[in-house]
Design a protein that fits this description.
With 143 residues, this protein is of the alpha+beta class. Helices cover 34% and strands 43% of the residues. The chain folds into 2 domains: 84 residues, F0F1 ATP synthase delta/epsilon subunit, N-terminal (ATP Synthase, domain 1, Sandwich); 51 residues. A hairpin with a 2-residue loop joins strand 5 and strand 6. GO terms for molecular function: ATP binding; proton-transporting ATP synthase activity, rotational mechanism.
Amino acid sequence: MSNTLHVDVVSQEESIYSGEAKMVVLPGESGELGILPGHTPLISRIRPGQVKIVREDGSEEYVFVAGGLLEVQPKAVTVLSDTAIRAADLDEARALAAREKAEESLRNAKTKEEIAVVEAELAMLAAQAHVARQYAERSKNRH
């Protein structure tokens, strides 16, 4: 059995990551999922949060996803998300500013539908800010 699996993280706009990895960790619907080579086939929804990809050489790549779908095969993992952003490209301050605007929208929301849309956006922005903060802390600790 191979000790790696092929990983693709794809957004609506572009392929964010494509390569071999030793492991992938991501936010499943019921908690964190760790995927290793040879994993049982699986299709699952994923929550907004961080995808951690451990490359063959042990280095790590982090990607923010705004939820989506996960497909696992014994030798491949595919993550499909409307929005996927490399953690290195995230801006915590921008995410927090957008979150403040969304909170204002929530205060002004009138219908259940408007409230649900804004609450989903708030959850995504909170996860995005969290991933940006974690990435910044990891980067600071390396230097």
